[in-house]
């Protein structure tokens, strides 16, 4: 378990946050807060209280996912984390899309932001932290190559190809095209899961690095069962609070005059923050393979699972759904994948590649504010 959740006080809070979140939602619903947010003193108090409660519920969901993951072992443990994060992300995206006139580009912006944050920001930070402490770190090239191969295919199918189709003008897929790409994404992700969990599990597991055994004492069955219950409660509270968070975010961005893509970045950061702590802590402890599994697995699950889920919901609520990214973003995506191929080509990393990824992440952030 990462050090930031190992302290006794933190562990207790991870059991309390789901209950607090459900209580907050009940009280807010009784008083009608959050259904249509207004910039009044009471509304500001509600928004200020909502943010830590929502963050606490998200962290609690990831904490209990990790308890289950430690019992399941790798790579199954990583799957528990990615599925939980995907559920949270879909809830946030669809809630924001359903507020007011909706944001047809939110899903695209969120997915692209996840790829940039993970493949550049998180990967770069993990490599730099590990490189400064251990000079070089090793990982399995076969596992990283499998992640990147599928990630590139899914990213092009969902974020780039819509700009070059003719059935519907603009960066959109027609319903038939969207259904096909969603089905293809699910099939590719299912094939990857088979490779990861059955056929080639050894590609994604580093049992011994520098002579250090990775095995740890799994939590007892009672604790795992309790965490499974509280994981469901945490996810339910996040889904319930997502609608209220969407109302606050819609008004806040409008009053600030911020670019529309900021919403996608904020959703991505909220979803990825707990998992990012886990990946960074793993790199700090010289468990770079786990960091790669978490980081690249997050991007893969975002495209392979979130896009089909959001597509289905957008059709159900009759909201438009933009997928194609802009030309500058296409260049950044291509450059990110090219650098990633070089970074993960040798099975060892150093701080130079980490700094290159961090510069690409800084470039992405700059052009979000100055498009």
Verbal overview:
With 371 residues, this protein is mostly helical. The chain has a single domain (3-369), classed as NCX, central ion-binding region (A middle domain of Talin 1), CATH 1.20.1420.30. It has helices at residues 8-30, 41-72, 76-98, 106-134, 141-160, 175-199, 221-256, 261-284, 288-316, 327-343, 351-369, and strands at residues 137-138, 208-209, 212-213, 348-349. A hairpin with a 2-residue loop joins strand 2 (208-209) and strand 3 (212-213). Helix 1 packs across helix 2 and helix 2 runs parallel beside helix 8.
Q: Distance between termini? A: 39 Å
The string of secondary-structure elements, in order, is HHHHEHHEEHHHHEH
Look at the structure and name the CATH superfamily.
Answer: NCX, central ion-binding region
Give the biggest beta sheet. 2 strands, antiparallel
Rg, please? 20 Å
State the low-pLDDT regions, or none: 1-9, 207-215
CATH topology type: A middle domain of Talin 1
Question: What is the number of E strands?
Answer: 4
How many individual helices? 11
Order of strands, main sheet, comes to: 1-4
Number of domains: 1
CATH architecture: Up-down Bundle
Shape field: globular
């Amino acid at each position: 378990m990462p050090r930031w959740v190992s302290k006794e006080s933190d562990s207790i809070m991870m059991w309390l946050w789901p209950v607090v979140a459900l209580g907050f939602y009940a009280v807010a619903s009784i008083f009608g807060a959050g259904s249509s947010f207004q910039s009044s003193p009471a509304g500001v108090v509600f928004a200020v209280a909502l943010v830590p409660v929502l963050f606490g519920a998200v962290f609690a969901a990831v904490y209990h996912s990790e308890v289950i993951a430690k019992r399941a072992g790798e790579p199954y443990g990583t799957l528990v984390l990615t599925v939980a994060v995907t559920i949270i992300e879909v809830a946030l995206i669809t809630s924001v899309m359903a507020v007011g006139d909706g944001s047809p580009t939110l899903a695209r912006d969120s997915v692209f932001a996840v790829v940039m944050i993970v493949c550049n920001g998180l990967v770069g930070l993990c490599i730099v932290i590990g490189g400064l402490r251990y000079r070089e770190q090793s990982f399995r090239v076969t596992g990283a190559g499998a992640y990147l191969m599928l990630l590139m295919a899914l990213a092009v199918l969902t974020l780039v190809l819509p700009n070059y189709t003719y059935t519907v003008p603009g960066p959109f897929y027609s319903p038939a095209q969207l259904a096909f790409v969603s089905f293809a994404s699910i099939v590719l992700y299912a094939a990857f899961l088979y490779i990861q969990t059955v056929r080639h599990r050894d590609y994604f597991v580093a049992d011994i690095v520098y002579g250090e055994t990775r095995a740890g004492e799994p939590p007892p069955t009672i604790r795992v069962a309790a965490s499974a219950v509280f994981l469901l409660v945490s996810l339910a509270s996040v889904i319930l609070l997502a609608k209220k968070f969407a109302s606050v975010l819609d008004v806040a961005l409008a009053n600030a005059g911020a670019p529309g893509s900021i919403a996608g970045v904020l959703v991505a950061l909220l979803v990825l923050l707990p998992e990012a702590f886990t990946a960074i802590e793993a790199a700090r402890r010289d468990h770079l393979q786990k960091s790669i599994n978490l980081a690249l697995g997050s991007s893969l699950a975002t495209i392979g699972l979130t896009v089909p889920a959001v597509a289905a919901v957008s059709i159900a609520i009759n909201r438009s759904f933009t997928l194609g990214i802009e030309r500058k973003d296409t260049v950044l995506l291509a450059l990110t994948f090219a650098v990633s191929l070089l970074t993960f080509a040798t099975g060892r990393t150093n701080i130079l590649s980490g700094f290159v990824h961090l510069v690409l992440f800084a470039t992405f952030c700059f052009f979000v504010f100055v498009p």
